[in-house]
Amino acid sequence: MVEPMSREERESGNRKVQAGFLLLVTVSPPLMLLLGDPSAIQLAAAAGGGFVVGLALLWYLRGLAGEFTPGPRR
Predict the structure, then answer these.
(1) Which pTM does this prediction carry?
(2) Using H for helix, E for strand and C for coil, what is the string for 30-61?
């Protein structure tokens, strides 16, 4: 039988999902830009913009998830 996840395992898994989400959102704009003929500055700007948007989305989703979790908020 499988035992329930400990708090540390759950937090570790959440951090990995968040890092993967941030990586996906950060890498997407430069990859789409590669369809054209971008310069290095354009690729860097797209990656930076994707990173900022990813952080904003992650902040929003963490707040939204906090509304649905039982117990005291951290």
Answers:
(1) 0.79
(2) HHHHCCCCCCHHHHHHHHHHHHHHHHHHHHHH
Distance CA 45, CA 51 (A): 10
Tell me how far CA of residue 74 lies from CA of 4, 44, 47, 60, in angstroms.
21, 35, 31, 15
Return the structure tokens found at 9: 């395992």
pLDDT per residue, tens digit, the chain (74 aa), is 788 889 899 889 999 999 999 999 999 999 999 999 999 999 999 999 999 999 999 999 988 887 887 766 55
Would you say 54 and 25 are in contact if contact means Cβ atoms under 8 Å apart?
A: yes
Question: Any residues with CB less than 8 A from the CB of 69 and at least 6 apart, and which?
Answer: none
Amino acid letter, 61: L
